[in-house]
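Hi team,

Below is the intake form for Mechanosensitive ion channel protein MscS from Methanosarcina spelaei. Please confirm the fields before the structure is written into the shared record.

FORM ID: S-0412
PROTEIN: Mechanosensitive ion channel protein MscS
ORGANISM: Methanosarcina spelaei
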Amino acid sequence: MSFETIMKQVIPYTEITVSRLIFALIVLVMGFILSKYAIHVFRRGLQKTRIPDLTVQFLTHFLSILLYLIIILIFLKSLNFDVDSYVLGVSAAIGIVLGLGLQDTFTNLTAGVCVAAIRPIDMGETVTVNGQTGKVKSVGIMSTELLTLDNQLITVPNKLVWGSSIVNMTRMPTRRVSVDIGISYSSSLEKATGIALNLMKTHPLVLKEPEPAVVTTELANSSINLQLRAWAKTEEMGTVKNDLVTGIVDAYTKEGIEIPFPQMDINIKEIKPKEGRKYTTEQDMKVQEEKIVLEEGLNVEGLY
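The structure came back. Fields below:
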């Protein structure tokens, strides 16, 4: 039997000739060799860039799966299999999976474009987004990075940035500084207000317009609660607030304005046993305690 005859023989139970099988195997082997070389070159090229190793590994793995899938399809096509229908089916399935899996990706991409165009936040601004507070480090197409005061990096998807309320703390050039403090009812409210106003008006970083103000916010159980309101430049408000907190305490102490503190007075009354009994039972103790509470009550003073 000649070599040409052997090549034309059909493999039993199939319609594949020996020559077609050998050709398909050569295509398969060469395809795997070329794909490994292509993956190696691709990985080396990515490693020369600043792309993180995790991203390089992910992209390389994705490329290898894609190339191997293409090689297997070419191998089956070389064996005269009808792979077109399978390709269409797989493509449709992949399209559905990608559509569902990348739904959030497209949403984040669209939200990133809106954030970049309308600019509710910008680089270096201190904001509160989706309950997270920090300085804006970067605004990417997929996510926004915030840097907290204790140097923690928070990554927020753009869809949460665009889809939630944004509090921008540094966009406006001026901010109001509010300091809460309480004075006792025995102290002079007029004197306490005058001291607070003088403290704010003489501070070099407090703006003249709008004028500083002192308002009474609450008549609490043991104190009259006041709030100092002063306006300052946004970048100086931290210094102003710290100076006002320490300054008002020192000023009130020097001027004899009492700043009350939480306290509680409890009166304890001795419970004597009933006549004819040497000891007091637990039931008698409870009855006597309830009687004391109802008749005398507890003298409780507190600052709330």
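SUMMARY LINE: Confidence is low (pLDDT under 50) at residues 299-304.

Thanks, M.
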